[in-house]
UniProtKB/TrEMBL annotation:
KW Transport (keyword) present: no
Keyword Transcription regulation (UniProt): yes
Gene3D superfamilies reported in the protein's UniProt record: Winged helix-like DNA-binding domain superfamily/Winged helix DNA-binding domain (1.10.10.10)
Recorded GO MF terms: DNA binding; DNA-binding transcription factor activity
Domain HTH arsR-type, first and last residues per copy: 7-103
NCBIfam families: HTH_metalloreg
InterPro entries, A to Z: ArsR-like_HTH, HTH_ArsR_DNA-bd_dom, HTH_MetalResp_TranReg, WH-like_DNA-bd_sf, WH_DNA-bd_sf
Keywords: DNA-binding, Transcription, Transcription regulation
SUPFAM superfamilies assigned to the protein according to its UniProt record, in alphabetical order: Winged helix' DNA-binding domain
Stretches that traverse the bilayer: none
Protein name per Swiss-Prot or TrEMBL: Transcriptional regulator, ArsR family
């Protein structure tokens, strides 16, 4: 048995919800992307090749469960992981470390790397600050 840090009872009581999130392929793919970096909805849509309403619905479900959060910068909302429970963090980490076994997640990671290297990511405030310096 793996030793488990004391988990927040408020969050740990939501195991069923957490595993329901992981059981949906689209949400799983989004989580794996957000585990790499924060992303806006349009970036997620482009990488997953899915329509914006579908991605937004999945993000809303995860936001309602406090698994992801969004921060507004100009006209964009950038989403990031917000997983406080050590057990859930460990599960996400293990999944990320074994993502090479999931073909769609591998494809998504390649798409993300391509967007980053091609400079087609949405503008972030910190990027704008760097340009003005």
């Amino acid at each position: 048995m793996y030793p488990i840090e004391l988990a927040n009872p408020k969050i740990t009581g939501k195991w069923e919800d957490f595993f329901k999130v992981l059981s949906d392929e689209t949400r799983l793919r989004i989580l794996m992307l957000l585990n790499q970096r924060e992303l806006c909805v349009c970036e997620i849509c482009q990488i997953l090749d899915l329509p914006q309403p579908k991605v937004s619905r999945h993000l809303a479900k995860m936001r309602d469960l406090d698994i992801v959060r969004g921060k507004k910068e100009d006209q964009w909302v950038f989403y990031y992981l917000n997983i406080a429970d050590p057990l859930f963090k460990g599960i996400i980490q293990q999944m990320a470390e074994n993502s090479q076994h999931h073909p769609l997640v591998c494809k998504d990671m390649e798409q993300l790397a391509e967007k980053e290297s091609s400079g087609t990511m949405c503008a972030r405030i910190k990027d704008k600050i760097g340009e003005n310096s």
